[in-house]
Amino acid sequence: MQPAKVGLVGLGAYAPERVMTNDEWSRYVDTSDAWIVERTGIRRRRIAAEGETTVDLGEKAALAALADAGLGPGDIDELIVATDTPEVYLPDTSSILQHRLGLGAVPTYDLGGSGCAGFVQALDVARSRVLTGKRRVLVVGVELLSRLMSWTDRNTCVLFGDGAGAAVVGEVRRGGEILAVVAGTDGSRAGILGLEVGGTRKPFTLERAQRDEHHAIVMNGREVFREAVHHMSEAAQQVLELAGVTLDEVALVVPHQANLRILQAVAKALDVPAGKVFVNVEEYGNTGSASIPLALVQARAAGRIPAGALVLLTTFGAGFHWAAALVRF
Ligand SMILES: CC(C)(COP(=O)(O)OP(=O)(O)OC[C@H]1O[C@@H](n2cnc3c(N)ncnc32)[C@H](O)[C@@H]1OP(=O)(O)O)[C@@H](O)C(=O)NCCC(=O)NCCS
Fold it and tell me: Does residue 108 lie within any of the structural domains?
């Protein structure tokens, strides 16, 4: 029998303790606090400690989500980890996290490489898994981007931060129902944001490593900016239409925290007042697939998501992938 309503049973997040300011970046690259704040709105980001890994961050967020749901590891039927910064190359992060969390022999999957869209894409998959018989799916979005990016490329390094967020997806009786999800991909834009070295096209070699190419994130910033605004606002409109809801009824928009200017442009395109858009990018930077759950947890803690509130999530990442979801808390 299908559960009546499927949604977010519990939420959790974790950000590493170390705070890195913009001024600190000027020790590594030719940049300044003023440039970073003006172009991105980012003031600080969290950086994982030396021994801390993707699974360490993911575990903390997952445990917080389980505690929030009042559930234990035995209550989870499946695990999906959205990450671009896996614990190891093989096997996937989800298998290592499954063991760490003591979930038992439940199936686990990584959703890798879809950048900042990963968490909402994984929510979409988790929702359909619950609709087809799983009791609960644990979804984790986790990134240790400080270890992926080049600390000598000012075009990218100042944008990112580390963090993790998680949700338990299952039958909901009170709030949290996922009313609708939309998602899309435009693979013709794959070359605009990515990291080639290490794959089969450009295998990892000593020469490439010596040139630091294994950290060379390729990004056409202006193009990414334009496409992010277009797809995040379009996906938001599509998910509202699918649910038969107007923007006026939405209490809070929680967009992927890429950059303050992108968030402002999305708010303008949607014609929503800035006060209706949750922003924490100044404190965390862009934390990829961790961004939406981290923002959701903080918005809820700040009292911005009262019972019954409609919350609109919208995101965009490398691929290009985009996704939006509408949740009634
Ligand atoms: C990256 C981004 C902040 C750059 O802002 P911008 O207004 O497009 O920047 P401009 O093109 O006007 O300026 C680029 C100049 O700033 C310089 N610059 C880049 N990073 C810099 C930094 N951290 N500090 C100082 N100067 C920097 C560049 O070298 C370039 O200099 P040049 O003109 O001498 O070559 C912006 O394009 C952006 O936010 N893009 C989206 C990125 C994103 O969100 N990616 C993740 C998506 S999920």
Answer: yes
Whether 213 and 129 map to the same domain: the answer is no
Write down the pLDDT at residue 1.
66
Q: Do 28 and 148 belong together in one domain?
A: yes
CA distances from 187 to 96, 191, 199, 220, 260 (A): 29, 9, 17, 15, 26
pLDDT of 216 reads 86
Judge whether 1 lies within some domain. no
Same-domain check for residues 119 and 260: no
Q: Does 192 share its domain with 312?
A: yes
Number of structural domains in the chain: 2
Domain span at 271: 179-328
Determine the Cα–Cα distance for residues 150 and 142; give it in Å rounded to an integer.
19
Q: Whose CA is nearest to atom 38 of ligand 1?
A: 221
Same-domain check for residues 155 and 219: no
* 87/108 Cα distance (integer angstroms): 14
CB 43 within 8 A of CB 21: yes
pLDDT score for 4: 82
Q: Closest ligand 1 atom to the C-alpha of 160?
A: 46
Residue of 26, 225, 266 best suited for mutating to test ligand 1, as the one with most atoms within 8 Å of CB: 225
Written as one letter, the residue type at 311 is V
Pick the catalytic residue from 215, 231, 256, 321. 256
CA of 329 to the centre of ligand 1 (A): 37
Q: Report the C-alpha gap between 4 and 203 in whole angstroms.
A: 48
For the chain, residues with pLDDT lower than 50 are none
Considering the domain architecture, whether residues 104 and 184 belong to the same structural domain is answered as no
